[in-house]
Request: fold
Amino acid sequence: MHPVLTLVIQRLALGLLLLFAASILIFVGTEILPGDVAQAVLGQTATEQALANMRAQMGLDQPAVVRYFQWLGGALQGDFGVALSNGRDIADSISRRLGNTMFLASVAAVVAVPLAIFLGLLAVRYRDRWPDRLISGITLTSISLPEFLLGYIIMFVFSVQLGWFPSVSNINAGMSLGQKLNAVALPAMVLTLVVLAHMMRMTRAAILNVMQSAYIETAELKGLRRFNVIARHAMPNSIAPIVNVVMLNLAYLVVGVVVIEVVFVYPGMGQYLVDHVTKRDVPVVQACGLIFASVYIGLNLVADIVSILSNPRLRHPK
Amino acid sequence: MNDEFRYHLARAARGRLGRRAFLGRAAALGVSGAMANTLLASAVRAQGPQRGGDLVMGLQGGESTNSLDPALALSQVPFCYLRTTGDTLVNITPDGQIEPRLAEEIEASDDAKTWRFKIRSGVEFHNGKTLTAEDCAQTLRRHSDEDSQSGALGIMRDISDIRVDGDTLVLETETANADLPYLLADYHLVIQPDGGFDDPTSGIFTGPYKWVEDEPGVRHVMEKFENHWDDSVGHFNSVEMLVINDATARNSALQSGQVQMINRVEPRVADLLSRAPGVTIQSTAGRGHYVFIMHCNTAPFDNADLRMALKLAIDREDMLDKILRGYGSLGNDMPINEAYPLFDESIEQRRYDPDEARFYYERSGHDEPIVLRTSDVAFPGAVDAAQLFQESASRAGIPIEIVREPGDGYWSEVWNVEPFSASYWSGRPVQDQMYSTAYTSNADWNDTRFFNDQFDDLITEARGELDMDRRKTLYREAGLMVRDEGGLICPMFNDFIDAHNDQVAGWESNPNGDMMNGFAAVHMWSTA
Reply:
């Protein structure tokens, strides 16, 4: 078998193993919380009899191992059970929320990733001159501000003062793509500003690293234009660290934007999770945890595979 | 005010002249903008409700865990949507009277133990079914059941028998209770078909709006229910409630015109927000109060002189000014204020008196620092308030040591556990309910550990008393007892601060709750 294929399969298997381990951690984590689901549901009104009844009804009287595999089996088939707090089907609620989160994350990513890489290349091209300083200055400023403050500033300027975009980014199924894009314009803008600096700086650093190599000098001596040297010759060799940081930021866009969701009233996963944590709604917390873990592991897996594939020594073994 | 101005005013009120154009003409005629705005608002109100338009509200207090089951409602958004889509047997008017709703006539036996509610005929549920007295009885039965986990369980506990007599609902209580109708105005008790036993979350009620879309924690959409029995309410074509828990986001949404109303405006921004074009701040004196509570049975607070010293050592005016920016009223160390029916306004206001406080403190013989526990979640500004208290007490020679507790777990680990802490009480519709929830010996949450047989007797007697003058006297005595002997230090009552823009009219403040006691969408109308 081709060694790259072996490596990729190894990575995939490792990813699955990791996901499995994460699911155990999530389950054990919620298990060792004081009290159980039945107590959480019954609260102050709990009596011994009522607790016993509810435990039997929910299958909580069975050993933890059995319950874990039941839960995992259900989750694999997309059945997460029902929320304790309002009796709604978790998979159903999550699919809508997750869809919204993915939509916002993709809009932000589509703008942020190419922009960050382009700005990174530009910063290398004009290294230590004013375009480099300007790009670094602006992106570092925007990453240094807390997200919510950035959100309020952008909201004040573009919504309250100029009235271009809505400050409430509520999207629902009845809206057209254009309306949805208009609604998420402001949160996407803030998220772009938040993730831009990290990816841009990494692109810049990674490329500067290979710019010292002899083959770059060769390319320059051939008389290639400087931007071409950077984009065609330097960039492919620094793709691995760039992809890594891009994937980390994409993962952040999916799992870490609860503050932005609150500020712009966006119906995504973050707020959904926080609400249910407050109510000790364990099945929902488990489901969200599993989904977040899969997103994180999945994206890192992609980064790993891309780094492997981008390495010519692995692609063309002697 | 000349004829020309009156002419423009009338045209503006009918919507034939834009607001800006009207203000321009008013200014040309020498009428100030503020004056013209006020006159326009009252002229619009005088026009009476207009049918049509769509209302969008931005509300704090919604979570993705919210349910359509009225029994489980707790926060502001479910409160508002239940008021908007449902009907209760009675309502409480802003001036504290009982207004018959689904119950047409109310009759009490002489001993105030048997109550008969004649149920209105011709009322239709959103699913087309006709309302019967049995539906009402079943609703009350469901909320009386321990298993329903209803938020109204506490107020249903007094009712010993629920039965139906033709078109009349009959309720019996264990002890005489002259306030029973007030309790039935609770927002959990909206009437459902068969009491919601078969499907508590169906969202089928009898209110002026019916459900279109329900996304908990995100938005709730309702439309006008054409067959509603009362055509004097429900003027909008549709009502949309957006859950906006972030205060700044709510303000922005109102300023940018995405929503027409918001609730829970923060006192520190209320003045700034009122300067935004077209925005009106509605501040309503309510019954919620910020408190510091001492356990009367725990040392050192079992010493009446020490309690009195602390009560005299708090500067209420200063606190009202700094914590609530004046959006509230002074507390008087009792949980009752003028927003309650049967409040006696002649009770003397207690004031900050460092000398008197020092006298009582020295007489108490106590000289250790007094530990006060506080947290940001106790009430907005509770940590600052504790520091103000510390400062004013130190001027009377009383040392207070502040311990700041984490917000998570404050209500289970600190409040009602530690002997001296900051806390909050939202009001209750009537005095009896407030006292029997937190001050009688058998109260569920006696958080000041106030055990006084004489007080308990007063409350029980007042509960069954149908002679209102006598009742008022009894409540005065009970209030004074808490004020002078109890463990409650109440520096202030907070106002509800809501805001709306000029596309809606018909606001009427209601001390029973914010957003016109939840009825904003029901009573207001569109001017756009």
Remarks:
- Chain B touches chain A through 30 residues (CB under 8 Å).
- Chain B has 19 helices and 19 strands.
- Residues 468-485 of chain B form the longest helix (18 residues).
